[in-house]
């Protein structure tokens, strides 16, 4: 039992060490509102965390119709009862007094309170008018990785078959587009190969651009417990900052930003050179090994050292560890994904596992991580740039199958081109071909790159913007209609975490005021639009979460993400269950690819792959001749330098990211007092050497400037690489003092004022971690402000 006394100072709590191959001990973390004890709780309602992708299972404590706390679920496979700081404190945001309680509509330039009928009436009228006047391509949807499966599926059906638009994507484009793409490139299909249980078995763990200690605190607790138990795994960390992960690593490689491909190619070079290739595995299950061997032949550690600025001996040491591992678990996240060669680098981690035969066995795991709680569902339901059920838009048979599930003609479902990615949707809005943008559960006015551009796109007169959120966010403030949404704890649905574990999250309390569940809003819209199937029946035949889940099960049947063996009752009471879950695998599936590569056959695969440099989609015939038997595809990539490199004007590399205490644009975590107090304002990290070279000191107010814009922040010197500056991207403007709108009167505090409109050519994920900036002094730290607050979250 860990009662979370001070889980701000110690985010991970007490250790429960364990030995390899034994189950992870449970530890039940609880946090209740001051003055409330467990016996005071009226009901515990089953749920899982909505503040990251780990899928921590928890029960929501309800007293007198209000949420009063949370308790981890010891029975769950994911967390065995543990909770992280955001899980423990974040629920308080639900009851924040500034929740949206009524729809708002814009009148004479101002947002005013309205009612559902008026708000939905305006949306429907605009959608009808645009459909008649300009066609379905004038309407777009930008959703999230934070709704429930049932909601994404409904949105995908109404957008793709109801409206008939190709312009539907999620903020998952900023988040896990590369995870999905890397899996498609290598395995022909999305779907996480590994399992969190691989931590229990691994003898080696490698984290590529993944600050797990801060961003998946509970998974990190699991790894810490292995590190403190007998026979601990070796740990390799690749991150330019000296993170908590780096501190525990046997080898910490701190490359220049944007050089992951060079580093990975050198690691592959060493593994091949030292004869550590699993030939039998490569021959049986892959194509493309010879091309890889040729491509990395010249990529020596010495060569990579020159590009990455990492000592060659350290690269050799890491290669030795990775090359001798018997049970290797790798994870990959934003340090790789938000980069100019995102997919190319993520695919090299897949290649590492293929050449070493490290798949499909306990401890031999690959986690191309997700970040958001239900990003997996956005992808599988086709509410991102994919078709539902991991279907291939280039495969007419797949489109026909989907059309049969929806009882529509195949031509109804746009598949003339790849589904439009989010960066392109915003481009269409900028150019004026897109005239209506419905934004659900995301705050692009803080989270997209180059915010001055995003603000000007959203503020256009000709673009009709709908924002569906809990709060009047920076984005909602620019909308024409604002819809108040219910959230976690106030509605029922399922969500699937990064290791394919499906959890049920049940409604615990009523939403505030007139706020409604996203599912109900979508169903209402579909009914008002009167979308029809090809027999003139209603297109959408479900009416609540459980019937929506059943509809999705029919769509998922026979596909890799098969949910047919699940139902709400099976998800109640015990642990979450990993898909595929079918009649043949009723308890779910721990690992994919235990029996060879399953979904890469040309008839089955979700994608025929793309060119690693241009991102152009391969033709079906090309894929068929490359990979007729549906093996894993080993794709080599040549290192290319970052698009925006440092210069005399902008001498530092700029990277952005997270702290343990906040979630994204802080709409929830800034409304939880403990979390807000732990990290109340933006800061900028540079190394002590860099600071002294520029005559700067800890606590100084500095300005971080790029060609796009500037941010003012307090300086923190940390053990980050020299030549680099890090900004957390959490801080927008909704909670700055009234009347003070920084981006209007000069430098702001949102990191994305400075980031660039540019993306990985393959996954189209924006480059939040490769840019160039300069840091200049604005004002010295006042001598009486004392030293900076130390937080467990900073990479000191
Ligand atoms: N506390 C907290 N947890 C979260 C979230 C949150 O907002 N707050 N968000 C959730 C979501 S949606 C996501 S996507 C995940 C993200 O989780 P992470 O990917 O772990 O988080 P980031 O801080 O974005 O980036 C990870 C690391 O990448 C490093 N990095 C930067 N550039 C490079 C590079 O060129 N190469 C390498 N190898 N590393 C580099 C950074 O120093 C940083 O430590 O976290 C999830 N969990
Ligand atoms: N510079 C920089 N920028 C980044 C990143 C980075 O590392 N650096 N990371 C990127 C990544 S990985 C991500 S995931 C994005 C995240 O970026 P966003 O998606 O913009 O971030 P959030 O603050 O999570 O926004 C979610 C919104 O949904 C609302 N919401 C919560 N629950 C519900 C619900 O049930 N229904 C509805 N309708 N609304 C709800 C919240 O109030 C909030 O306004 O940011 C990206 N931007
Ligand atoms: Mo994310």
From TrEMBL:
SUPFAM superfamilies: ADC-like (SSF50692), Formate dehydrogenase/DMSO reductase, domains 1-3 (SSF53706)
Enzyme Commission code(s) on record: 1.7.99.4
Domain 4Fe-4S Mo/W bis-MGD-type: 42-98
Superkingdom classification of source: Bacteria
InterPro entries linked to this entry: Asp_de-COase-like_dom_sf, MoPterin_dinucl-bd_dom, Mopterin_OxRdtase, Mopterin_OxRdtase_4Fe-4S_dom, Mopterin_OxRdtase_prok_CS, Prok_molybdopt-oxidoreductase
Keyword Oxidoreductase: yes
Pfam families: Molybdopterin, Molydop_binding
Record keywords: 4Fe-4S, Iron, Iron-sulfur, Metal-binding, Oxidoreductase
Region feature Disordered, mapped onto this chain: 1-30
Keyword field contains Iron-sulfur: yes
Chain segments annotated as transmembrane: none
Alphabetized GO MF terms: 4 iron, 4 sulfur cluster binding; metal ion binding; molybdopterin cofactor binding; oxidoreductase activity
PANTHER family the UniProt entry points to: NADH-QUINONE OXIDOREDUCTASE SUBUNIT G, RESPIRATORY NITRATE REDUCTASE
Protein name in UniProt: Nitrate reductase
């Amino acid at each position: 039992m860990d009662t979370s006394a001070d889980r701000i100072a110690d985010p991970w709590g007490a250790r429960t060490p364990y030995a390899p191959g034994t189950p992870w001990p449970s530890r039940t973390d609880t946090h209740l509102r001051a003055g409330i004890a467990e016996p005071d709780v009226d009901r515990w309602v089953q749920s899982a965390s909505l503040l990251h992708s780990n899928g921590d299972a928890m029960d929501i404590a309800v007293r007198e119709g209000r949420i009063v706390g949370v308790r981890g679920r010891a029975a769950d496979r994911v967390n065995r009862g543990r909770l992280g700081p955001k899980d423990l404190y974040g629920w308080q945001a639900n009851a924040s007094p500034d929740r949206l309680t009524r729809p708002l509509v814009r009148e004479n330039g101002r947002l005013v309170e309205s009612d559902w009928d008026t708000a939905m009436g305006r949306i429907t009228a605009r959608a009808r008018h645009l459909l008649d006047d300009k066609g379905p391509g004038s309407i777009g949807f930008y959703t999230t990785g934070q709704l429930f499966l049932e909601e994404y599926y409904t949105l995908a059906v109404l957008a793709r078959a109801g409206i008939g638009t190709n312009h539907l994507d999620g903020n998952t484009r900023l988040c896990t587009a590369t995870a999905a793409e890397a899996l498609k490139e290598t395995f022909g299909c999305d779907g996480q190969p590994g399992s969190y249980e691989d931590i229990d078995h691994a003898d080696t763990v490698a984290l590529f651009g993944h600050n797990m200690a801060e961003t998946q605190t509970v998974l990190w607790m699991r790894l810490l417990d292995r590190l403190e138990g007998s026979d601990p795994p070796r740990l390799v960390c690749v991150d330019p900052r000296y993170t908590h992960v780096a501190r525990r690593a046997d080898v910490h490689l701190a490359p220049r930003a944007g050089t992951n491909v060079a580093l990975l190619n050198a690691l592959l070079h060493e593994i091949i050179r030292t004869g550590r290739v699993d030939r039998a595995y490569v021959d049986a299950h892959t194509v493309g090994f010879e091309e890889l061997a040729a491509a990395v032949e010249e990529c020596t550690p010495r060569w990579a050292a020159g590009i990455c600025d990492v000592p060659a001996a350290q690269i050799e040491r890491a290669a030795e560890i990775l090359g001798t591992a018997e049970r290797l678990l790798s994870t990959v996240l934003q340090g790789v994904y938000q980069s100019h060669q995102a997919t190319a680098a993520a695919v090299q981690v897949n290649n590492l596992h293929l050449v070493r035969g490290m798949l499909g066995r306990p401890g031999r795991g690959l986690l191309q991580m997700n970040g958001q709680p239900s990003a997996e569902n956005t992808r599988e339901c086709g509410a991102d740039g994919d078709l539902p059920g991991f279907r291939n838009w280039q495969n007419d048979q797949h489109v026909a199958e989907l059309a049969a599930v929806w009882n529509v003609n195949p031509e109804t479902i746009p598949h003339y081109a790849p589904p439009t990615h989010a960066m392109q949707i915003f481009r269409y809005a900028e150019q004026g071909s897109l005239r209506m943008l419905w934004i659900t559960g995301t705050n692009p006015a803080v989270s997209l790159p180059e915010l001055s551009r995003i603000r000007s796109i959203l503020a256009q007169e000709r673009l009709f913007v709908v924002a569906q959120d809990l709060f009047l966010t920076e984005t909602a403030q620019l909308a024409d209609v604002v819809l108040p949404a219910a959230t976690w704890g106030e509605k029922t649905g399922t969500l699937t975490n990064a290791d394919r574990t499906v959890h049920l999250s049940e409604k615990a309390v009523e939403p505030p005021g007139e706020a409604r569940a996203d599912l109900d809003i979508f169903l209402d819209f579909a009914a008002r639009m009167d979308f029809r199937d090809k027999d003139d029946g209603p297109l959408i035949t479900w009416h609540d979460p459980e019937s929506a889940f059943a509809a999705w099960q029919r769509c998922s049947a026979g596909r890799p993400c098969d949910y047919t063996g699940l139902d709400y009752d099976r998800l109640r009471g015990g642990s979450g269950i990993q898909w595929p879950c079918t009649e043949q695998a009723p308890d779910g599936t721990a690992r994919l690819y235990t029996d060879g590569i399953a979904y890469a056959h040309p008839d089955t695969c979700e994608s025929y792959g793309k060119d690693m440099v241009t991102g152009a989609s391969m033709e079906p015939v090309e894929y068929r001749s490359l990979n007729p038997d549906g093996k894993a595809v080993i794709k080599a990539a040549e290192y290319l330098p970052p698009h925006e490199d440092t210069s005399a004007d902008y001498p530092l590399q700029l990277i952005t990211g997270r702290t343990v205490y906040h979630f994204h644009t802080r709409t929830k975590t800034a409304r939880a007092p403990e979390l807000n107090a732990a990290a109340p304002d933006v800061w900028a990290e540079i190394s002590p050497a860099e600071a002294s070279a520029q005559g700067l000191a800890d606590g100084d107010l500095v300005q971080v400037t790029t060609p796009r814009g500037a941010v003012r922040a307090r300086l923190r010197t940390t053990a980050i690489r020299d030549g680099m500056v890090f900004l957390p991207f959490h801080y927008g403007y909704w909670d700055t003092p009234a009347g003070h709108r920084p981006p209007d009167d000069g430098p702001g505090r949102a990191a994305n004022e400075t980031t660039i409109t540019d993306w990985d050519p393959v996954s189209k994920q924006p480059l939040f971690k490769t840019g160039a900036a300069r840091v200049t002094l604005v004002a010295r730290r006042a001598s009486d402000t004392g030293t900076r607050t130390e937080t467990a979250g900073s990479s000191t």
